[in-house]
From TrEMBL, chains A, B:
Superkingdom per UniProt: Bacteria
PANTHER family: CRISPR-ASSOCIATED ENDORIBONUCLEASE CAS2
Residues given in the record as Mg(2+) binding sites: D8
Protein name: CRISPR-associated endoribonuclease Cas2
One of the record's GO molecular function terms: hydrolase activity
């Protein structure tokens, strides 16, 4: 399963710590392709673990994570405008 | 065609102006679902116009836009963790 994850952490007093932890968790499972954007291929069980870990950190009323799932990366074309983050080249 | 667009504009002196313009352009074509994340359904011709307009504003060496295309929104499942932006409900 191809996963794309984007997050927006409110930058208040606690926000920096939450953001660091969310970044670290995402990096365990996915590739960072833009500031708060990650992508990669995960099994269902891995995705469930990722979501569980993230839910322990974000503040439900302030922060937002969106996870896009597609059956295969072949179903999603990706195009860069401007600066490209080279780490992604191994996905496409 | 289902489109998901994410951008990261470097916040230097000129960045605020670039970011405002990128946001305004994206809003003409797509729905804002998170700080710098937009989605929607576009025809190929509309996507070409959107890309053309964006290229006039971003700084190729600093800023980054990634456009994900999928033949149909049915090929992409979307899940929110934390705060949800209601504007998206008309897409799914």
């Amino acid at each position: 399963m191809y996963i794309l994850l984007v997050y927006d952490i409110i930058s208040d007093e606690e926000g920096a710590r939450v953001s660091r932890n969310v970044f670290k968790i995402c990096k365990k499972y996915l590739t960072n392709i833009q500031k708060s954007v990650f992508e990669g291929n995960l099994k269902k069980s891995e995705l469930i673990k990722l979501e569980y870990e993230l839910k322990n950190f974000i503040r439900k009323d302030k922060d937002s994570i969106i996870i896009f799932e597609s059956r295969s990366e072949n179903w999603v074309d990706k195009k860069f405008i401007g600066k490209k983050d080279d780490k992604t080249s191994n996905i496409f």
